[in-house]
Amino acid sequence: MTQMTGAKMVVQALKDQGVEVIFGYPGGAVLPIYDELFMQNDIQHILVRHEQGAVHMAEGYARSTGKPGVVLVTSGPGATNAVTGITDALMDSIPLVVLTGQVPTFMVGNDAFQEADTVGITRPCTKHNWLVKETDRLAHTIHQAFHVATSGRPGPVLVDIPKDVQFATGSYVPPREAGNAHYQPQVKGDREMITRLVEAMETAERPIFYTGGGVINSGDAATQLLRELVEATGFPITSTLMGLGAYPASGKNWLGMLGMHGLYEANLAMHDCDLMINIGARFDDRITGRVADFSPGSRKAHIDIDPSSINKTIRVDMPIIGDVAHVLEDMLRIWKSRGRKINKEGLARWWAQIAEWRAVECLRYRNSDTVIKPQYALQRLEALTRHRADRYICTEVGQHQMWAAQFLGFEAPNRWMTSGGLGTMGYGLPASIGVQIAHPEALVINVAGEGSWLMNMQEMGTAIQYRTPVKQFILNNERLGMVRQWQSLLHGNRYSHSWSEALPDFVKLAEAFGCKGIRCSDPADLDDAIAEMLAYDGPVIFDCLVEKHEDCFPMIPSGRAHNDMLLAADAEAFKQGAALV
Amino acid sequence: MAAALNIQKGTSKHSAYDLRDPNSDVIERHTLAVIVDNEPGVLARVIGLFSGRGYNIDSLTVAEVDHTGHTSRITIVTVGTPAVIEQIKAQLGRIVPVHEVHDLTVEGPSVERELALFKVAGAGEKRVESLRLADIFRANVVDSTLESFVFEITGTPQKVDAFAELMRPLGLVEMARTGIAALSRGA
């Protein structure tokens, strides 16, 4: 057994786990580890400006590569600052390994300087966490942390390492000798239940695939199998916000995103279907609307690796616990071996019905010659970047996020980084840096709102320092747009604290950070301005001044049934109470 | 028989429990046995799960049961609708140091026992009566002064409740209960 200090062990364990990049911020309780980082060149350390930024960067890195993201922060405030990002990763099932420094073991519980009960604080927002009290346990614990973060339903884990454990010497164990204890989630689905699902697929008149982030987390095999299954059966497919890209937006069976701001045809098809096949999604409340009225006439199958997702909110007829790729492989094989049957007549009628819903053109908006509509800005961004296979999009949270999901098309998985479950404003800028670190040559754009963007704008310093040419495409309406929209629709136009009276000059801000700033307010100039952003070799802050009072439609008002959608044309009547029955 | 009860095939793979209406609003009481790694924080994870997700705990006991394997057994009595009970079990199963979750209420017959200590103070006929009742309930006297007894009683929670009710008018001043320990019957 190799003897080494705890600090060296941390770096060795990361190397042995294949880690190339970590995101972090030094402080008293992690200095021994930073000293070890200084003396090696295998692992790149990205110095952030705030620990929350480190976690979101690691999320962007993880989501765009399929590998776990690694974070290193100090005790106390370092750890508490990381909590929002860790919770975000838990909600969106992003694999992260967060290493925190802790005061020495003999000081724990003493209210020492920069002490916080990190494992206590992060217990509900991690998949699992550990406080390491002996250096001999450290290597094993870090290897175990990687195993737990990446197996089953992925998620963030945290290892809290007191400073004396970092200084002390102990024996190092490599990953293959560490063992993975009993934590081995089931990946193969129940064959009998899969066969039942295949039988249902053979006769269904109005089937639909409802896919989620689980497909992307399962990996490239799952994406390939999903595409094969959809093409072979000819069933329509919709996806949650987290699952965009698993099936290509240009695919002929694509209905678009579903949910609160999903497409009319996607939500109506979910409501009226007779067979719903949920693959790696979790019946989130933004999808179901009022649970009692959710897709009342359908048989439902649910494929999920997490048993606690099954029957949590929606009772399903065919629960299948397993990894998406494994289950889809079995589904395809069984379906093929039974003669590739589908209900052709039923399916033809179903597509005819969907065509009628599509004809509503739910994303239509009134464009303008004088002011840039946010939808138009995204349509132009899409038109000018769609050809780039290496395009990665991040978002912040709010109206711009929903418009981006509606108007940008994703052809491949791992190209779309957004905060879905927790809805964390301030996610997008650091996430875009994490993506760019993983893909230095790619085009990485953060579609942002000015409100969200300001929440973590200090990370522009990180972008400059590491020469990550991230494009910050800010749809600036000088409002907290989604808050304003709800106040408009549901609170009598009383815009309580939903605008900022003192926004910075984003172009000057870009100059102050040392990057390029572009402002555009005229629709006629937009294409040239976007082209200038794309051509610039370095980070850009693009201040796109858009219509201040645009609402995001379609919309399922909170608490309504999911087929009770508000389209742009209905909004005035809704506001006046006509639709509020 | 399955058809008569309107059971959907496949929903009853493991136990008769799943034959009941999953959408029932009836509140049920279930005793769960959870086998966990005996490591720091494991009880906090279990309790945090119940408080964080709004589940109820009627009784909870925990102790190490396998010293060499470092496993503890947590016995939890909880109440909820069938859907909530199922969700509680799934959520418990998701905790990394949890090895097994057993629902003793549906996995067949089981025995439940609780230990309680009662301090009863008094003199004269009440004192004699408390001793007589303790004998009927097979409670032991584990401490005695001229003015008081401490009784030790073991039994089902119902038996302990019944004993408590009888002791109350006879001078019950303090009581301590361990919560329920439970095992399935048979091998």
Sheet of most strands of chain A: 6 strands, parallel
Main sheet of chain B, how many strands, which sense, barrel? 4 strands, antiparallel
Low-confidence stretches of chain B: 1-17
Going by helix content, strand content and strand pairing, the class of chain A is alpha/beta
Number of domains of chain B: 2
Task: Find the structural class of chain B using helix and strand composition.
Answer: alpha+beta
Sum up the overall morphology of chain B in one term.
Answer: elongated
What this model shows, in words?
The complex is a heterodimer of chains A (581) and B (187). Chain A has 24 helices and 20 strands. With 581 residues, chain A is an alpha/beta fold. A six-stranded parallel β-sheet of chain A has the order 3-2-4-5-7-6. Chain A has a six-stranded parallel β-sheet with strand order 11-10-9-12-13-14, sandwiched between helices. With 187 residues, chain B is an alpha+beta fold. Helix content of chain B is 26%, strand content 39%. Chain B starts with 27 loop residues before the first strand and ends with a strand. At the A-B interface, helix 9 of A face helix 1 and helix 2 of B.
Show the helix and strand layout:
The complex is a heterodimer of chains A (581) and B (187).
Chain A (H helix, E strand, L loop, with lengths): L1 E4 H11 L4 E4 L6 H8 L5 E4 L3 H15 L3 E5 L3 H15 L4 E7 L15 H5 L5 E4 L3 H16 L5 E7 H5 L1 E4 L2 H4 L12 H13 L3 E5 L1 H6 L1 H14 L3 E3 L14 E4 L6 H9 L2 E5 L5 H4 L10 E6 L13 E4 L2 H14 L6 H15 L15 H12 L5 E5 L3 H9 L8 E2 L10 H11 L4 E7 H6 L4 H6 L5 E6 L4 H10 L15 H8 L2 E5 L5 H10 L4 E6 L25 H5 L6
Parallel strand pairs in A: 2-3, 2-4, 4-5, 5-7, 6-7, 9-10, 9-12, 10-11, 12-13, 13-14, 15-16, 15-17, 17-18, 18-20, 19-20
Antiparallel strand pairs in A: 1-8
Helix pairs in contact in A: 1-2, 1-6, 3-4, 3-18, 9-14, 11-14, 12-15, 16-17, 16-23
Chain B lengths: L27 E10 L4 H11 L6 E8 L4 E10 L1 H13 L3 E6 L6 E12 L2 H13 L3 E5 L3 E8 L1 H11 L4 E13 L3
Antiparallel strand pairs in B: 1-3, 1-4, 2-3, 5-7, 5-8, 6-7
Protein name (chain A): Acetolactate synthase
Catalytic activity (chain A): 2 pyruvate + H(+) = (2S)-2-acetolactate + CO2
EC number (chain A): 2.2.1.6
